[in-house]
Amino acid sequence: MGTYFHSVTLDESRCRGCTNCIKRCPTEAIRVRKSKARIINERCIDCGECIRVCPYHAKQAISDPFNLIYSFKYRVAVPAPSLYGQFKNAASRNHILTALKGMGFHRVYEVAKAAEIVSDATRKLIQEEWVNKPLISSACPAVVRLIQVRFPSLIDNIVKLESPMEVAAKIVRKEVMDSLKLSSEDIGVFFITPCAAKVTSVKAPYEKENSNVDGVLSIKDIYLKILNSLGKIKNAEDLEQAGFEGIRWANSGGESLALGTEKFLAVDGIHNVITILDEIENDRIEDVDFIEALACNGGCLGGPLTVENLYVAKTRLKKYIDQAKDKDLPQKEIDKYDDLVWTGNVEYKPVMKLDKDMVKAMKKLETLELIHKELPGLDCGACGAPSCRALAEDIVRENANETDCIFKLREKVRDLAIQMMELEKKMPPVLDKESEPTKGGIEDEC
Amino acid sequence: MGLSDGTIKMSFTILPDDLTAAGEASSSMKKMLNQLGVSPQLVKKAAIAMYEAEINAVIHGGGGIADIIIDGQKIEILIRDEGPGIPDLELAMQEGYSTASDEIREMGFGAGMGLPNMKRYSDELIIHSEVGKGTSVKIIVNFY
To answer: Tens digits of per-residue pLDDT, B12-44?
Structure first.
């Protein structure tokens, strides 16, 4: 199945082997072994839920170090719209963008601008007769990967258009190449990300061979630097290009509102997303053309690599949305959506399958259910698996033993103790003092 | 669960009047079929058909029992209730025909698509119903 890249990783020195993360993982991708959480690579969708719940901050997202930007002659920052919600004292979006640029970039291009282009393309796509409705947004890569692993029948409903991040990187790269006569290798495009899922999108894209983005910097990592330079700005450069519809993508529902249809459903938070995808799979969602599903609560503003509290950030973002409304920036229209269509495709990842051979899979499933019945059903997590059924699954996959269950172990110990007590009563004849040895015969042989 | 005959049998209880719990059996079934590696489109078919039958048992049947039998070729879903039964099966099979209460409809159920959907998404549908005794629905989805 090839190699997997994951942005979400574990800092072993911090992990205490508690059960917080295994319980929250939407794809049951974590097990605790030898007091450390282990991520099952092929199942992880990089949603970042474990980063959020880990009380010891042992789960981390790998992003690129800031110094990577200096390996490029010409450096471009493409910030996610969620960046705007992070700063308390910024007078305008231009101030934030100027501060960002001042960190060492030659140019800044807003992903929010590209989001408007993607919105326009989606508006056109939705009109097509042949699309499978409801269309499901591909804006959140964690949700796309969730569908690959858990809801394969919905793969055909995914909006297979490039993400605003990719579109932004492509546009700005071309602009710089044309205007400055630079070769592509000299230009470093850096995405400023609110989440781990986007890092994985750049390092291991599912929709094409290579990403247009050269590196990913997390908002958390560069926050202080931007904050510092924000205070020093006297005259902010005019860098704003995106209108309010693009900025609004940072909120849950923002992408949908730009589509000009009321037949949309916006859901956020990975566990809520699962409920809705289940409903779609059961054919329970009616009169909806478009599903916006985002893994983080509140959408990208609630990303695990953001700094500010989601609700505070929301209020701040509203300010910039209103400012953009007043400014009336020109909307970028496109003729056709074709240029944005994915060159690759997402495939079903049957990682839940128990065996390649259906007959063997049947046997394993039978055994699994039998074992499951015998387990206590407390889903305590002490065995290192998220639930009793998951332990049963691990056992048939030969990754665990029944005695990993502490209740099963206790039962076994108890049975053993009883057996020992019974055995203790039985003495070998030579030591048996209670019954007198019969005289004669035996002595001669000694 | 039979160990020797190469089939998997599971039984679920469908609680009466609990629409929030309805769908749990079909969810478990979906998980099992995914673990067997059944193709996604077939899993979806079976899930929709079973979900509709489950909902019917909740709304009309006062709860019941869902049994599933999986062998290497197909899945059989058997849902039984001891509800009022269906007086006119032909009428009930028509799209849009429903005897659900307004209350149920307000919750987004009872649109009269239950039985038609079951028919559409199953390869074989057998319904036995007796007024005053109950209804049993057998749904078969073939894997090949």
So the answer is: 999 887 877 788 888 899 999 999 999 999 999
Annotate B72-121 with three-state secondary structure: CCEEEEEEEECCCCCCCHHHHCCCCCCCCCHHHHHCCCCCCCHHHHHHHH
Q: Could you tell me which chain B residue has the CA closest to the CA of A147?
A: B40
- Candidate list B24, B34, B54, B56, residue with the active-site label: B56
Whichever domain contains A362, its CATH number is 1.10.15.40
* Per-residue buried b or exposed e for A192-207, using 16+ beta carbons within 10 Å of the residue's own CB: bbbbbbbbbbbbebbb
Same domain membership, residue A371 and residue A281: no
Under the banding of pLDDT at 50, 70 and 90, the label for residue A439 is low
Are both A178 and A283 inside the same structural domain? yes
Per-residue pLDDT, averaged over A98-110, amounts to 96
Place of tokens 């958390």: A220
Q: Exposure string (b/e) for B69-91, b if CB count within 10 Å is 16 or more?
A: bbeeebbbbbbbbbbbbbeeeee
Domain that holds residue A57: 8-61
Is residue A252's pLDDT more than 90?
yes
3-state secondary structure A200-223: HHHHCCCCCCCCCCCEEEEHHHHH
Chain B CB contacts of A368 below 8 Å: 35
Q: How far is CA B67 from CA A370, B7, B58, in A?
A: 16, 13, 15
pLDDT in tens, B122-142: 999 999 999 999 999 999 999
ipTM of the complex: 0.82
Same domain, A28 and A135: no
As for how many domains chain A has, the answer is 3
Does A349 reside within a domain? Answer: no
Q: Say if the Cβ atoms of A153 and B40 lie within 8 Å.
A: yes
What is the CATH topology of the domain spanning B16-142? Heat Shock Protein 90 (3.30.565)
Residues in A lying within 8 Å of B, measured between beta carbons? 150, 152-153, 155, 278, 281-284, 348, 350, 352-356, 358-359, 361-362, 364-366, 368-370, 393
Q: Do residues A104 and A250 both lie within one domain?
A: yes
Q: What pLDDT does A338 receive?
A: 77
Query: CB under 8 Å to A73, separation ≥6 — which residues?
Result: A182, A186, A187
B37 and A359 Cβ atoms separated by less than 8 Å? no
> Three-state SS for A190?
strand
**A-B contacts (CB, under 8 Å):** 69
Same domain, A230 and A274: yes
In a domain, A432, yes or no: no
Q: Is residue A434 part of a domain?
A: no
Integer-rounded Cα radius of gyration of chain B = 15
Q: Are residues A22 and A145 in the same domain?
A: no
B52 is catalytic: yes
Q: pLDDT tier at B115 (50, 70, 90 boundaries)?
A: confident
